[in-house]
Design goal:
The chain is an alpha+beta fold. It has one domain: Cupin (Jelly Rolls). It has ten helices and 14 strands. The strands form two sheets. The chain has a nine-stranded mixed β-sheet. β2, α1 and β3 form a beta-alpha-beta unit. The mean pLDDT is 89. The protein binds 2-oxoglutaric acid. The site of 2-oxoglutaric acid (AKG) has 10 residues, from β9, β13 and β14. 2-oxoglutaric acid binds next to β9, β13 and β14.
Length: 291
Amino acid sequence: MSGRFRHVASHAASTLSVEAFASLHLNQSVPVVIKGLAQAWPAVSLWPKPDYLCSVCGAERAVLCERNERGRLFSYASADSSVTLPLHEVLSTYRAGGAAAERLYVAQTPIDELQPRLREDIIVPPYCDLAAPADWRKPASLLAAMLPVRPPPDIHVWLGHTTSVSPLHFDTKHNLLAQIVGHKRVCLFAPECSSALYAPHGGSSNQSQLGTVGLLDPRLGGSNGTEYARVRDQFPRFVTEALPNMHVCEIGPGDALYIPGGWWHHVAAIAPAPEAKNSDGCVLSVNFWWV
Ligand SMILES: O=C(O)CCC(=O)C(=O)O
């Protein structure tokens, strides 16, 4: 697949001022990897420790897990699509690996639901205080412009396995996805690509019918001939119009990715190299959504 996509711009956090972020990225809806933004957060050194999350949150803390054959689901419509488990059971399932670990994703859990004390381990980035210019096409930005004070960002924790995937979708708010444990590969498409991304119901949904395919996730075959032909036959506009405009990046512990509101993203954890330091099968991120 190399050569077919663009790399997301990348800046060291120390060289990306709040003003530069506003003018080059937030105001222009341009994604950026901010290397090392979260490097000094206590979370980056504490959360990989095997017993840390259980000691802070409580081993019996009930967590809602999305459950799916591959990647997460976006709705809890089917009785089998989610399960509530004690935290220690999720972590030991991840540690054991295999099919059971692949099926579970504690996705998008509000940090205060997991444990408010975890806020002490992170630092809300100053970029989240910025409001983007009001845009009549983005209702959230109009609402934000009318508010007398800036609301704090919504903070969520993503506790997954090294095989976890979030299928292709977009969110309307600005987003900083900060990586705490393990690595993720993110494929991004600008809102202009929407019609080639096969959103169901004539575009009224934020989810693409592509979900996750090999052209987004090398573990599903990458762009090998068979997978390429399958996707091209089923989603021809994706291959001809969207794929040449795909932006890709990898984020590791301490890095953050700014995803502008409306940008489509597919997020896949990356399995560590066999010789890499063991992180007990967990991949952890924290994200900030703001308007
Ligand atoms: O990390 C993930 O699996 C998905 C994150 C995501 O979709 C988001 O931050 O909007």
